[in-house]
Amino acid sequence: MSEDEEIQGSEAAAGSEDNNEHEHEHEHRHSHSHRHKSKAKPVLYSVLAFFLAFALFLLSCCAVLHFTVFSKDYMLGLMRNNGYYEMVRSELQSGLENLVDASGFNKQFSEDFARSYDIQKAVEEYISSFYSGDSTLVNTVPFKQQLYSAIDVYIADNNITVTDETRKNISYFVNEATQIYVAQISIPFFSTIANYIYKARNVLNIVTVSLGVFALVIVAVIFFTNSYKHRRFRYLFMASSGAALAVLVLPTLLLLSDKVRKINLETRSIYSLFVNYFNTLFYNFYIWAGVLTVISVILFVLYVKHYKHVLNS
Amino acid sequence: MKKFFKALSVCSLAAAMTVGASATAFAAGINAAEQKILDELNTTVTMAGTEKSLPVVYINQAENYLNTVEITDAEADEIIKRIETVKSYLTSTGAAKYDDLTDAQIDEFFALCQDVVSVINLKIAYNKATRVVTIVDSTGAVIFTCQIGNPGYNPGGSEDPGKTDPGKTDPTIDPNPIIKTGFDFNIPGVTAVAGLGILLVSAAGVYFIRTKKKAEDNA
Amino acid sequence: MHKTHRSRKKSLYGKDMIILPIVFCVLIFLICLVVIIPSTASFQSTASLFFSDREKNFSNDYVNIFVPVEESYDESETSAESSQTSKAEPKKQETVNIANFTFPAYGNQFGELIIEDCQIHAKLFFGYDDIALRNGVCIYSGSFIPGYGKTILVAGHNNTYFNGLKYAQKGQIVKIRTNYGNYKYEITDMQIHDENDRSAYDLKADSENLIMYTCYPFDELGLTPNRYFVYAKLISGPVIDKKA
Question: Is C217 helix (H, G, I), strand (E, B) or coil?
């Protein structure tokens, strides 16, 4: 005898809100047709509960994506809170020092070009353009201007004669320095990913709404086609706890694989940013798993309460 | 523009070139198996009736790498066999250069290249948008990167070259080993994946092959 | 009655309340595996490139495999003397088997380069690398190490380690000390070439030749398109026996 049949049997024995119907059922419980019905119904509701669980799982994924990958504030928050700008400043400084070693300036020349505030501003502009669907290009104008001004001061301070050739060489230097700057400010693959994510944003919204409607329909079906309240909550509990489990397992598997720590990015700043990015993404999954767990607990409590009510009545 | 990367045949050769890097490390010298790979690198591939070969700087780099690792005979044979498969495939496409290949052919080509490098646990990735090929070893170190069709590929360049200085590319010349004595500090934006320190060929930039007319070979 | 009571308890905390959510979870992942993962195969292939077997080391340190070997060349030789001796074959053809020393990997410091007349004394690295260039001079990995019998192409900053190349003169001696032997080269020529001039070097050469270069003009402001090449020929040093 299946669990559900047992439940139905026990419910019948204990009485119910709908006594007449139950008595009627009780009379025919051994008939072939009724046995078939009693098996099909719980299977049908279990399938519905599964679809609901799947929808809730996907909804949770969409929600996490909405608040992380598709959120500008998420990215900028990570950058601000994890010392990203300072790391970029340090790397930019190092790159410029190397260039200076090949270009006739003294060591001190490159000291003032990498300022955290300017870098933060440039990176935020770059990220913002990405999230607004614009081309993700680094604005190099302020950096170039700053560099040219500093070179002019350097030339004046050191009484250097500037020929046309020197101007060309300086221009070459500035262009190379700008390339280092661009490489530091930009994020690898960002312009490629930007295009996809910007397009995916609308799709995500449509998918989220569709999944929401789908989930609501299933909830409504489970709710309004079950005459016993406890059964409604039981199937809803199964769905939400199944989804909670899936949402919990996903980041856990990824964290246990220990892949994030081994992400293979070249600079310390990018590495640090993305490790934090993914870890926080996983924590967001845990938050949603927590939300679903709370819902599951509430549903379970409601189930127990109504079931006891059924038993008592 | 004839030199402007006639084909991706080189990628398979590149894969072979880098095989040493991920094999058993610190084995000095060129053994017979490694020599076979070097010999394979010196062969040509026929594409649309034209023979293409690998620039010497890449073969030199391969030799240096093979001096640091140990490749077994079986590995070498398998690598060579798979390279031959790639070469046959390229010949069969009828393409004379990269741009002649269809998207499906490019995918197939790189799948075959992956087969080559997988013999010694390397990974190959190709970014269609930027045409950058990257091969990494099991430690994640980039051991080869090149930009197809752009011999002037500048590994220190910006992700969006059009925004800054676009013009250091000259598609008609061999890969240039001459640096700015202090320039190659930067990662290429498109291949930020690890290990600049052991970039096999990126310093020179791009990998392309010289075209030799059959008639010249026969002469 | 007893049986009914047991059934009630079982139904309240029944196995299906636990098993079904787990089954749902497993099914969800199975569906993801079957439906989503194959459609993202190309993405996974690219993504796998971003992961390695170990955590990346961001240290700015470089690997130093340079342990000086005993001087084998005659220290008493002067530039002028060496110029004369260079016309003759090396006194004794020493060899060093490649299996008997650590072949430098990319980024390794494996020796030092000294040109006393130019006040150059720099660490020698294998492969162009920013850390290496910051700390010394570098051999291009598409050329070869000393003793290999082929071209050795060495780059250095004109502001730092190779600034002294401006004092290079024919006949001056370049010493390269490595972890497997000590070499002497004699400067034979100095030339200025455009950075894209392929005639400035021959990486296919079958004889050992040392080419050092840096940006030119020296001490010029900005980056220059010209390079100062200093050529040298081998005088003495062990030949590498390449048989593994």
Answer: coil
Residue of chain A minimizing CA distance to B167? A175
Each domain of chain B, given as residue ranges in start order, spans: 2-168, 185-219
**A chain contacts of residue B157, beta-carbon cutoff 8 Å:** 179, 183
φ, ψ of residue C228 to 5 degrees: the values are: -100, 115
Helix (H) or strand (E) holding A187: none
For chain B, give the mean pLDDT: 60
* Amino acid C77: pLDDT: 47
Residue of chain A whose alpha carbon sits nearest to that of B130: A192
* Max mean pLDDT range (B63-72, B137-146, C212-221): C212-221
pLDDT value at position B28?
65
Q: Is C160 on the interface with A (CB under 8 A)?
A: yes
The residues that bridge with C194 in the sheet, in sequence order, are C226
C43 touches chain A (CB under 8 A): no
Nearest chain B Cα to C133, which residue?
B182
Q: Which CATH class is domain C63-241?
A: mainly beta
Instruction: Inspect the interface and report whether the beta carbons of B193 and A175 lie closer than 8 Å.
Output: no
Asked if B128 has any chain C CB less than 8 Å from its own CB, the reply is no
Instruction: Tell me the ipTM for this assembly.
Output: 0.75
Write the single-letter amino acid at B210.
R
Q: Is the pLDDT of residue A35 over 70?
A: no
pLDDT at C41 over 70: no
Domain ranges of chain C: 1-53, 63-241
- Nearby residues of C63 by Cβ (< 8 Å), 6 or more positions away: C105, C107, C108, C109
Q: Which residues of C touch A172 (CB under 8 A)?
A: 222-225
For residue C128 the two structure tokens come to: 């162009």
pTM above 0.90, yes or no: no
- Smallest Cβ–Cβ distance between C29 and the set A11, A49, A246 belongs to A246
Provide CB contacts within 8 A for A271, sequence distance 6+: A263, A265, C56, C58
Give the neighbours of chain B: at least 3 Cβ pairs within 8 Å: A, C
Q: Which residues of C167-189 are buried (b: 16+ CB within 10 A; e: fewer)?
A: ebeebbbbbbbbbbbbbbbbbbe
pLDDT value at residue A15: 37
For C205, the closest chain B residue by CA position comes to B56
> pLDDT tens for residues A43-54?
888 899 999 999
**Chain A residues touching C22 at Cβ < 8 A:** 242, 245
Listed ranges B13-17, C123-127, C167-171; the one with the highest mean pLDDT: C167-171
Interface membership of C21 toward A (CB under 8 Å): yes
Question: Residue A9 has which token pair?
Answer: 């049997």
pLDDT tens per residue across span B158-183: 333 332 232 333 322 345 566 654 33
